[in-house]
Amino acid sequence: MLKESGWIPNWGFDLGLESLETNLEIIDTALPVLYTVDKAGNVVSRGVSEVKIQELLSFCRENNMRVIPTIGSYDFESTASAFKNDTSYQKQVDKIIEEIEKYDFDGIDLDYEMINSSYKENFLNFLQALSRELKKRDKILSVTVFAKWEDAKYTDHQETRMVQDYSEIAKYADEIRIMAYDYTLQSSKIPGPIAPIEWIRDVLDYAVEKIPREKIWLGVHLYGYQWSSDRTIAFTYTTALSAIVNDPNIEYVYKEDLAETYSAFNCGDGYTCKAYFQSPEGIATRRRLAEEYKLAGISYWRLGGELDLLK
Fold it and tell me: 99: Cβ–Cβ under 8 A, 6 or more apart, which residues?
């Protein structure tokens, strides 16, 4: 039975809570992004209030939902401090255990997206040390990783991808969440699909060779990107419905070969905006794929503003 989980960013916490209530029968694990790593290498709060954390915890406990908070780190300087030596990563282990014991979380999720490859060994030692402590307490270690595939020419996060050795991480992590999205980056000048389904197959073919299937959670995007003349914006399904789907003057098409919805429309100054976004059909296709590969589950980025997309 496929399980489903979702990240709740600190900047969209209320919407994320609302989403848990809407998707009560669907979501099994909440992944609130409660922590980050500061420039000194310390695990610190992202500023979600105690009241909100308790609200989330009591809701999840009442509804038999796991809470595995995420440490989201997106900065090379911070991880350089965090992994410079044994003492620095042990400091993280201690702080993580302290937070888990304080709130009785079900585990921790590590989403470290910028690590220099020279810190690979210390990062893996950190996972081993953390895993040992978590196992003693019957808690879960989840690691979130970038998508990889055979013969890939990576254009982003090359250093971190070198650090994220799937086989090594699988020795220590109980759950591995693969961010199978951003095939076309928001920074790309050329519009393109966010997670074409054949590419996701390539990612999973690579992953199941390195990681036991029962540890793999497929990361699925719930957002869209719209390219206009001067910038690219990310938007939620709520926006997709109001601005594109429900507008009688705008045409859109679900592309079976991509399992994504596409729309091109005039958006002023004679410019054609192009948008790719998630849809219920796309979610259904990804669920079927996760089942076909016999994965543990799916992880959505992000909960909040998706209306009935998961229903």
Answer: 35, 43, 69, 105, 108
User: Burial of 125 by CB count in 10 Å (0-12 exposed, 13-18 middle, 19+ buried)?
Assistant: middle
Asked if pLDDT for residue 217 goes beyond 90, the answer is: yes
Domain that holds residue 140: 3-221+278-301
- For residue 292, CA distances in Å to 32, 137, 200, 213 come to 28, 33, 12, 11
The number of beta carbons lying within 10 Å of the beta carbon of residue 185 is: 14
Q: Quick one: pLDDT band at residue 269, thresholds 50, 70, 90?
A: confident
270 found inside a domain = no
Query: What span, in angstroms and rounded, lies between the C-alpha atoms of 200 and 290?
Result: 10
Q: What is the pLDDT of residue 270?
A: 85
The whole-angstrom distance between residue 36's C-alpha and the CA centroid of its chain comes to 15
With respect to residue 238, please indicate whether it lies within any of the assigned structural domains.
no
CATH number for the domain that contains residue 176: 3.20.20.80
Cα gap 100→252, rounded to integer Å: 45
Distance separating alpha carbons of residues 299 and 183, to the nearest angstrom:
17
> Residue 296 and residue 136: Cα distance in Å, rounded?
23
Residues 6 or more apart whose Cβ sits within 8 Å of residue 287: 2, 298
Residue 268: which pLDDT band, with cuts at 50, 70 and 90?
confident
* Integer angstrom CA distances of residue 225 from 95, 196, 298: 36, 14, 21
DSSP 104: T
pLDDT tens sequence across 49-103: 999 999 999 999 999 999 999 999 999 999 999 999 999 999 999 999 999 999 9
CA atoms within 13 A on the CB side of 162: 13
Q: State how far the Cα of 52 lies from the Cα of 13, in Å rounded to an integer.
A: 8
The structure's pTM equals 0.98
- Using an 8 Å Cβ cutoff, are 310 and 25 in contact? no
